[in-house]
Design goal:
Low-confidence stretches: 1-8
Structural class: mainly alpha
Largest sheet: none
Helix content: over 70%
Oligomer: single chain
Number of strands: 0
Number of helices: 14
Mean pLDDT: 92
Radius of gyration: 21 Å
Shape: globular
Distance between the termini: 45 Å
Length: 405
Amino acid sequence: MTLLNLEEPMSDTAKWYQLQHTPLLMLAFRPLFLLGSLWACIAMLLWFAILTGNLSWSNSFPATLWHAHEMLFGFASAIAIGFLFTAAKNWTGVSTLNGWPLLGLCIIWISARIVAFSADQPLLWLIILQGAFWLIAICHFSWVVLQVHNSKNYLFVPVLALLATLNLMFIVMLSQHAFELAGLLSQMAVLGFTLLISILGSRVVPFFISRGLGLPQQQRTPKLDKLLMLVSLTGLGGFFAHHFLQLTVVPGYLLILAGLLHLIRAVMWFQYRIFTVPLLWSLYLAYLMMAAGLVGFGAAYFSSVWQAKDALHLITVGGMGMMILAMMSRVALGHTARPLTPHPLISVAFLLIALSALIRSLLGEHIGPHMAWQLSALIWSAGFALFVFIYGPMLMRKRADGRRG
């Protein structure tokens, strides 16, 4: 005997409502952290396949520039927007993008990744999609902070606009076969991300250290923060003037100074107990790698001991990569109302990203560049795969305390 199903089938409206209110779309960090970390694995494995010759590259621009674009303007940009949207809600009390609008932003981002991998001249769709992603992100963030006159965070708007401009100029240079200029724009974008990290770091790193170690107050460095901002902006301007305007300005001095100032700030933040907390030592080590990479990148203007691209990869793989992993791990736990004690495998993931950075930046001359690149790519992918495995289900579930968000 078959029991009758007395439940009415869910209407299309109910299905749309249910999807709109899925936990994954409640706050931007959820889908963008998940998509970004997935892409960190997939894009790097594609890069590994290209390096080993197992995947042919037929686009009209070099695969190295696709790799640079996707790591900076695909992966890192998604995480940055996911973090800023989530932080903006805390800073202002104003709801940020969620539900269908957030899903739409994610679809634009995914479409851009597909087009970037398969794009050829004139790359018009990639410009449209990346431009739409940045336009929505910048306009929405601006709207949120302007609503409550949150002037302290207005600074993020021009920084995001700078990154968006560099992204679109990069694509235009690809379409014009100006590959050297595109490469320089990607390097300038790395410096732009260090500026973003400098601003965010001055706020979140001492806060996380004080909370993680139970300290009575944060170690603030307001004068140093302002000096770092000035030096970083001047260094960006110097880089542009030297490479694009062909002026005699040498940005190396400013880049070295910026790196040294970051190291001084790291010393001022230091607490011995940092090394007992994975979410702190990973963040701190990432910051040190970024600072050291800036010093090395600046020094490359005066010496060939450490190649500029190797120093840049200490910034991107070790500094940006591990900082992103540490921030995602901390934010995901905090914003899903779970204890700030990560799974033990996350410490393994942190170590894998650090190892990936050191191999890519330091071992090229000893084991051969291609071998170093391939090993680094595989180890990086393993680190972010661990994050997806551990945090993926958490990002798709409701908060532990049952609240929305």
